[in-house]
């Protein structure tokens, strides 16, 4: 029988303990470090809550699972309005809001049939009914460029409820939440972009995070093409990556995806317009 959650625990003489746990979720590996005076059993219960919460998010918002709530919506919302769970409504509503804030560079409808930049305007959300309706057939919503960032904020809420002040959550090295401090010092040092080719000597490949999120979008090889341009519905090509540091993981995931999908001119404009939301950003391979 496969063990869903594995972990190691190391106590210290000062009463603090470091728990390292890992498991698979959302098609990636999730690594969790919790540094606290709480006993091992209590820290493991926190990890189990996180595992359950991520499993639930995947159940409702996995584009590729035909049984997910999102998949059902994609099949039926063009026939009649569909009532959404509160969490899925919140996610889609936030994505629709940031479509406007990113000048259309973040678009969850890019996988729709006969997609064009106006497709998203055929998605109708009713706050009063908490429902969604597609005003034309063939529309699909894909939250893959957003879900892990939203998951980080879900994890943050669990850690706050459980009074865990020092933690590092790493989802596939592309979505990271850092709270408080590492046992050996201030903040958490996180590496990124080290697998990408770059001709920029001295390019920064790590960042110190403290109560911040690091989210990245990009291609690590010529064969990796997974982000679709909202301008011409083609895959964004090239070995390059964008990393952003933000206070909010969901917003960070949106911004890294939008900046990667944007044209050079749009990227410059977005970096100016969205600067209040960005603590830092890195363009690698450009």
Layout: helices, strands, pairs:
Elements: E1 6-11, E2 17-25, E3 28-36, H1 40-61, H2 69-76, E4 82-83, H3 86-101, E5 123-126, E6 131-134, H4 147-161, E7 166-171, E8 175-179, E9 188-191, E10 206-209, E11 212-219, E12 240-246, H5 249-261, H6 264-273, E13 280-284
Antiparallel strand pairs: 1-2, 2-3, 3-7, 4-6, 5-6, 7-8, 8-11, 9-10, 11-12, 12-13
Cofactor: Mg(2+)
Protein name: FAD:protein FMN transferase
Keywords: FAD, Flavoprotein, Lipoprotein, Magnesium, Metal-binding, Transferase
The general outline is globular
What class, by secondary structure content?
A: alpha+beta
Helix content: 25-40%
Strand line-up in the sheet with most strands: 1-2-3-7-8-11-12-13
Report the count of strand segments.
Answer: 13
Strand content: 25-35%
GO molecular function: metal ion binding; transferase activity
Cofactor: Mg(2+)
Pfam family, one: ApbE
Catalytic activity: L-threonyl-[protein] + FAD = FMN-L-threonyl-[protein] + AMP + H(+)
Descriptive account of the structure:
The protein has helices at 40-61, 69-76, 86-101, 147-161, 249-261, 264-273, and strands spanning 6-11, 17-25, 28-36, 82-83, 123-126, 131-134, 166-171, 175-179, 188-191, 206-209, 212-219, 240-246, 280-284. With 286 residues, the chain is α+β, with helices and mostly antiparallel strands. The strands form three sheets. An eight-stranded antiparallel beta sheet has the order 1-2-3-7-8-11-12-13. Strands 4-6-5 form a three-stranded antiparallel beta sheet, with no helix packed on it. A hairpin with a 4-residue loop joins strand 5 (123-126) and strand 6. The longest helix has 22 residues, at 40-61. The chain starts with 5 loop residues before the first strand and ends with a strand.
């Amino acid at each position: 029988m496969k063990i869903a959650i594995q972990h190691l625990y190391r106590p210290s003489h000062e009463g603090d303990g470091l728990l390292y746990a890992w498991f698979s979720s959302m098609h990636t590996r999730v690594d969790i470090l919790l540094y606290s005076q709480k006993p091992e059993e209590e820290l493991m219960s926190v990890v189990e809550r996180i595992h359950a919460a991520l499993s639930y998010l995947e159940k409702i918002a996995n584009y590729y699972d035909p049984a997910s709530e999102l998949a059902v919506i994609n099949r039926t919302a063009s026939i009649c309005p569909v009532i959404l769970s509160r969490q899925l409504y919140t996610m889609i509503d936030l994505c629709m809001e940031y479509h406007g804030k990113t000048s259309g560079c973040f678009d969850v409808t890019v996988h729709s049939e006969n997609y064009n930049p106006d497709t998203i305007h055929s998605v109708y959300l009713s706050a009063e009914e908490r429902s969604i309706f597609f005003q034309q057939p063939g529309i699909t919503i894909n939250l893959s460029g957003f879900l892990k960032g939203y998951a980080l904020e879900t994890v943050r809420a669990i850690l706050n409820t459980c009074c865990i002040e020092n933690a590092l959550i790493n989802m596939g090295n592309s979505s990271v939440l850092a709270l408080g401090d590492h046992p050996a010092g201030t903040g958490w040092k996180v590496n990124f972009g080290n697998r990408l080719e770059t001709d920029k000597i001295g390019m920064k490949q790590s960042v110190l995070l403290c109560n911040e999120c690091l989210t990245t979008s990009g291609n690590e090889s010529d064969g990796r093409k997974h982000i679709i341009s909202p301008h011409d519905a083609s895959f964004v090509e090239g070995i390059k990556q964008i990393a952003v540091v933000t206070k909010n993981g969901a917003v960070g995931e949106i911004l890294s995806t939008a900046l990667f999908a944007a044209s050079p001119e749009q990227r410059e404009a977005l970096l100016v317009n969205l600067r209040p939301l960005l603590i830092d950003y890195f363009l690698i391979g450009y």
